[in-house]
Specification:
alpha+beta; 9 strands; two-stranded antiparallel ribbon; 8 helices; Ribosomal Protein S8, Chain: A, domain 1; homodimer
Amino acid sequence: MTEADAERRLLALGLVPADVRVLVEHFAEADRRGKSSHGLVRVEWLERQAFDPRASPRLLAAGPCHERWDGAGALGYLTLAAVCRGVLDDPPAHVRLVVAERCFPTGSLGLWVRRLAEAGLLALLTATSPRRLAHPDGGPPLTGTNPLAIAIPSAGGDPIVVDVSMGAVTHGDVLAGRARPDELVPFGGPHAHKAFALAVGLELLVAALAGLEHGAVLLVVRPEHDPVPALREFAAGVRLPGDA
Amino acid sequence: MTEADAERRLLALGLVPADVRVLVEHFAEADRRGKSSHGLVRVEWLERQAFDPRASPRLLAAGPCHERWDGAGALGYLTLAAVCRGVLDDPPAHVRLVVAERCFPTGSLGLWVRRLAEAGLLALLTATSPRRLAHPDGGPPLTGTNPLAIAIPSAGGDPIVVDVSMGAVTHGDVLAGRARPDELVPFGGPHAHKAFALAVGLELLVAALAGLEHGAVLLVVRPEHDPVPALREFAAGVRLPGDA
């Protein structure tokens, strides 16, 4: 699918042009960065989802170091795009915690924090999704794959961008037939209890702040130091997270 | 080693009684919760470390939602104990980010966040330590084992406490001969790049905020919801992180 196709099809769903641009930009960037399960293939998936194409996220409350947003029925991508725009327009003096209620689907979390890091801000983002991971010993699925993304800016070059889901495979892989449903377990093999524990912690962190529906939590901090060049030098060519 | 033995030996190192109490309490609680590599065995280890027993952590700066501490040569345990005491005495209205420079060793991170969660606060804590994890494909050790601890309070009962190190084994296991040095790699087997990426993200998060020496970063948030009872019910007896 081309970007032009995607644009046409998303407009046909009733989305306004500005929102379509946000979505196509996210999907195209995901494809460029090899995150194809969050790429333009998502247009077809969106065509099968029920959502209000005219809904807009709302800023519910804002303080000097916290914000609360409500997705209000809008696609989570649009909520995170609005949140990031707000941070870039008015960056925190030190730190800001942004809680987004009813924020789903959120796409490739690494892309959102990368944008903030490219503007010099350190960012940490997590988001919940349908329960698909069970305890490694069995039982019902208890958590989403709950990715954690961390981006660290660097004055002299590309930020480091970490984006780790707690699943051994993605739900997208299962949908695309690249993985079996029983492979969607916490990653780690004999240490899968570690990834499961992280998934539980992030699930409850989001739920304790954003409520029962899927949400997202973003921490933005103004960094005091630039440790990236030294790590790159020390790594001597080893590929670091987020590098092409 | 008994707690009384530990107390006597720590006093003999020149630590003041109030600091000795902090240390013995931490070690004894670590033993009780099965984190024995952070338990009373650490007294012998401390006897072999060079540190100033009279150093005290200092609060360098405090704002409505951020604090900066300097371990100032004191053991990291004492810095985190002072940080937690400060939070408990004056909890944040919404959110507080605490950065602790020169904060090492920090012990079992889960115990610090548990204490905050038992007072009704949501807490996330990470800390850096000597570089021991290399990229799964090889190269020099680039990061510490860099645990991430997350505690979620619950009005009706025990908090959920996640405490995950990114190593397949602990350095303590290696010291104690329970693991070979070559087993101290990012956990995850074929997915070890995920644990490595998280270790890199946490390493740089701490370094970007606390500087080049080992440090710790604590996020404390007042929760809006109590998702723990519903998860416990849903889990139907499956052991959740931090449970006995």
